[in-house]
Specification:
- The structure holds two protein chains of two kinds.
- By secondary structure, chain A is an alpha/beta fold.
- Chain A is built from eleven helices and twelve strands.
- In chain A, helix 4 packs parallel to helix 6, helix 5 packs across helix 6 and helix 6 packs parallel to helix 7.
- The two termini of chain A are 32 Å apart.
- In chain B, helix 2 crosses helix 3, helix 2 packs across helix 11 and helix 3 crosses helix 10.
- Chain B is elongated and about 75 Å long.
- Chains A and B meet through helix 2 and helix 4 of A and helix 1, helix 8 and helix 9 of B.
Chain lengths: 313, 294
């Protein structure tokens, strides 16, 4: 067995602001094997995007990143700028959310895909890449505004594949798309994964999306992992009350009771500058007791490949 | 494939030209400019440069009204005003354009760096910019011209070296906004260097601003040159329009009602400033993507 493709150990991401430091990610550890897909779920502001952007050090200047990120045996956080630029995209490419903002509106999509190849002297051809994501090669001279939302997201995926990365980081790639297009893009990602043996980290707040693409699932809350385990099983029966609440927020088709009474989760995610003591979820947790406000929580194994951070389990 | 993109490029160039052709103000500007450029280019056909020398008109009548020999009369030294105005077009346009190139290059580089860099580099650039923005132009230009000399090239460098601050501010503001765009973040994630990002994504984004701003600096630079020349700076042996006006003023052409002496250079200055302003405004309209018709 080879070493894992990606190992993240005790990662902390702290943004600097005029109101003081903002800890967005607090001590996250995870690992990813080659060819494996990890789904990363959580509400807005739970630190999902901060976590994956820190994997390639794509954080604003002044942000503190501690811990370690080892990608294909190299420590990303210790790399010199030149080496870091070489690793970006060639090892791990990003499919950003909101393709319309990420594509330069005044450059043709073909040129923008070529840009990724040029940065790394890759040998892929733009035409082939477009064909792989199901866009006719005649569209390479189109400007972003001439493409639909789904096509733009496909262009982003073609761009991500340009340098044959080992790891694809998909940051809510289907968020702005309608359900049909969303399904097509997900199918495309799943196909590419099985064809190319890509490892993927797939971020979303939509657990139903993850069930179709992810092998394993990790759920974040207030900058920490609260539960992780096998995706299919976790969606059927999560242990952590937060994961349960996330799963219950989506109505089940055919189940009248869930449609008429969708169970949400009251309250807002905590302010990262003032995270509650003890278990950060206890103010919103349906099963919280007084003990939860003081006890330290950490991921504890429930079964060989399943962990949760809750003292009630 | 390259032929296709070349075709696209030709089409977009044709679109810009078509829009300018249908812009009446722009056409008036281009016609006026063509007139002045022709004047500057054909000046040697009408008068030899030696006619500009102070002794050249010693056998001519002084301050003579226009006649068939002197189309625009003569000045207080007996020189042909027509020759002065034709050669003045050369000097004024040369100074205006060179000063603009200098101002645009300095302003663009500093604006790009001040906008893209962060931390102390950006602050230092901003401080330099502020310094030049608040300096009173005329006293500074007089001091510099006295120190460095009065040839047209040096006048152009002096004007260009003090005229860039406003444009630099404008470009910096646009760069600050472009820097935060998603496609810049994407390019960073692609492993692109700062040079790559600036040249591929930021510079094209500010290029229309730079061009429109440049065509609006030209009239300012020509006016500034005229001002300095009128105040007595500038080269006596290659007189610009401002210098001709200076001569008219000091020889009392206004009180003597020698309109042929002060009116032609004055109208030329107004005309060329108008031409560049009309063209600059039209370019701004054509390049502004928010005003582009789909």
């Amino acid at each position: 067995m080879n070493a894992p493709l990606l190992v993240v150990d005790d990662l902390n991401v702290t943004y600097r602001s005029s109101r003081g430091p903002i800890p967005a990610v607090r001590g996250v550890s995870l690992s990813l094997e080659a060819g494996e897909t990890l789904g990363l779920a959580g509400e807005s502001g739970s630190g999902k995007s901060s976590l994956i952007m820190a994997l390639l050090r794509l954080v604003p200047p002044g942000t503190t990143v501690t811990g370690s990120v080892t990608m294909a045996g190299e420590d990303v956080l210790a790399m010199k700028p030149g080496r870091l630029r070489a690793v970006r995209w060639a090892e791990a490419a990003v499919v950003f959310q909101g393709a319309q903002h990420v594509l330069n509106p005044v450059r043709r999509v073909g040129q923008q895909i070529q840009e990724a190849i040029d940065c790394h002297t890759g040998s892929n051809r733009v035409d082939d890449l477009l064909e792989q994501v199901g866009i006719p090669r005649s569209r390479r001279d189109a400007y972003p505004h001439e493409l639909s939302g789904g096509q733009k997201q496909r262009v982003m995926i073609a761009m991500a594949l340009a340098c044959d990365p080992e790891l694809l980081i998909a940051d809510e790639p289907t968020t702005a798309l309608d359900v049909m297009v969303q399904a097509q893009v997900l199918q495309l990602l799943a196909d590419l994964r099985s064809e190319r043996g890509l490892a993927m980290i797939f971020i979303t707040h939509d657990l139903s999306v993850l069930s179709t693409v992810a092998d394993r699932l990790a759920v974040m809350y207030a900058g920490r992992l609260v539960e992780r385990g096998p995706a299919k099983e976790m969606l059927r029966g999560a242990h952590h009350p937060y994961t349960k609440a996330l799963a219950a927020a989506f109505p089940t088709i055919g189940d009248r009771s869930s449609r008429l009474a969708p169970s949400g989760l009251a309250g807002d995610p905590p302010d990262p500058t003032a995270v509650p003591s003890g278990c950060p979820f206890h103010p919103r947790c349906p099963i919280a007791t007084e003990e939860c406000a003081v006890a330290a929580v950490a991921l504890r194994p429930l079964s060989p490949d399943w962990e949760a951070a809750c003292i009630k389990l | 494939m390259s032929s296709l993109s070349a075709k696209r490029r030709r089409q977009s160039a044709a679109r810009v030209l078509r829009q300018l052709r249908h812009d009446r103000a722009a056409m008036i500007g281009f016609l006026l400019l063509a007139l002045f450029v022709t004047m500057a280019l054909t000046a040697p056909l009408f008068a030899d440069k030696s006619e500009l020398r102070a002794v050249a008109g010693r056998n001519n009548p002084d301050l003579h009204p226009p006649n068939s020999e002197f189309w625009l009369g003569t000045d207080e030294l007996g020189r042909d005003v027509f020759a002065l105005v034709m050669w003045g077009a050369r000097v004024s346009l040369y100074i205006g354009l060179l000063a603009t190139v200098v101002a645009v290059v300095i302003g663009s580089v500093l604006g790009l760096v001040a906008g893209y860099a962060r931390g102390w580099i950006s602050r230092v650039m901003l401080a330099i910019d502020d310094f030049f923005l608040v300096l009173p132009f005329i006293p500074l230009a007089i001091v510099l011209a006295l120190l460095l000399g009065r040839s047209p090239t040096i006048m152009a460098l002096v004007i260009g070296g003090t005229f860039w601050a406003g444009g630099s501010r404008l470009i910096r503001a646009q760069v600050l906004s472009l820097r935060e765009r998603g496609y810049v973040e994407r390019a960073t994630a692609l492993g692109a260097s700062s040079t790559h990002i600036i040249s591929r994504h930021v510079l094209p984004g500010v290029a229309p601003l730079i061009i429109a701003n440049a065509s609006l600096i030209v009239p300012g630079a020509i006016l500034a040159e005229s001002t300095l020349a009128f105040l007595g700076l500038g080269d006596r042996f290659s007189p610009s329009w401002g210098k001709v006006l200076d001569g008219a003023q000091s020889s009392g052409a206004l009180t003597l009602n020698a309109w042929w002496y002060y009116l032609p250079p004055g109208l030329c200055i107004i005309g060329v400033v108008l031409a560049f302003t009309l063209i600059g405004n039209a370019l701004e309209r054509v390049f502004d993507p928010r005003l582009l018709g789909r």
